[in-house]
Amino acid sequence: MACSSCPYRNSTTRTMCSSLRSTPPLSFFRKLVYFLPLFLLPRFFGARATFYAEPISDIIAPVVSIFIYAVAMKRILKKPVIPNF
Predict the structure, then answer these.
(1) d(Cα 19, Cα 83) in Å, to the nearest integer?
(2) Contacts (Cβ under 8 Å, ≥6 apart) of 48
């Protein structure tokens, strides 16, 4: 279950880093990635396919969140550090 909490940690970390613009879209994306398979899979593969919605979202959401986090951290680390003297 460690992987399923990764998007939550990413949202929390981004909020702490004052990156509030990308935090709500990541949270919305996480829910979207869960609900789309929840409604689409049964339509194409039957009712039993509903049970695959959560594993699919548990894989896709952390991968996308980690990618966005990595891109954002590269931008943050490229900024020059201004010493506070």
Answers:
(1) 21
(2) none
- How many residues are given for the chain? 85
Q: What confidence tens digit (pLDDT) does each residue in 6-55 have? A: 555 555 554 445 566 667 887 888 888 889 999 999 999 998 998 999 89
Q: Are 37 and 57 in contact (CB under 8 A)?
A: yes
Prediction pTM value: 0.60
- Separation between Cα atoms, residue 83 and residue 16, nearest integer Å: 20
Give the angle 29-33-34 at the CA atoms, nearest 5°.
120
What DSSP character marks residue 20? T
The three-point CA angle 20-5-78 to 5° equals 45
Read off the tokens for 7.
């998007």
> How far is Cα 69 from Cα 67, in angstroms, rounded to an integer?
5
